[in-house]
Amino acid sequence: MVKKLVINTEWCKGCGICAAFCPKEVLAVVKEKVTIVDKSKCILCGQCEQRCPDYAIYIKECEE
Ligand code: SF4
Ligand code: SF4
To answer: Where in the chain are the domains?
Structure first.
């Protein structure tokens, strides 16, 4: 099972909470939406998912 960081841009309101809590500086708000700046730094810790008030960022488990 592969884990992947997913952003739902329709739900993201660009508050930046997830970016503030990310311990690896993976995320940044660009034009009022959060974006992945450096995917390679992500440790899939789930902090962003836990802190987002809008369920707009989450870790998804994929089959491959
Ligand atoms: S899973 Fe952790 S390291 Fe990855 S973007 Fe979210 S808070 Fe940052
Ligand atoms: S915490 Fe949620 S709503 Fe706020 S910027 Fe991050 S993904 Fe978007």
So the answer is: 2-62
pLDDT, tens digit, for every residue of 2-53? 999 999 999 999 999 999 999 999 999 999 999 999 999 999 999 999 999 9
Residues whose beta carbon lies within 6 Å of some atom of ligand 1:
5, 22, 24, 26-27, 42-48
CATH number, span 2-62: 3.30.70.20
DSSP code for 18:
H
Q: State the pTM of this model.
A: 0.94
Backbone angles phi, psi at 14, to 5 degrees: 70, 30
CA of 2 to the centre of ligand 1 (A): 15
CA 12 to centroid of ligand 2, rounded, Å: 5
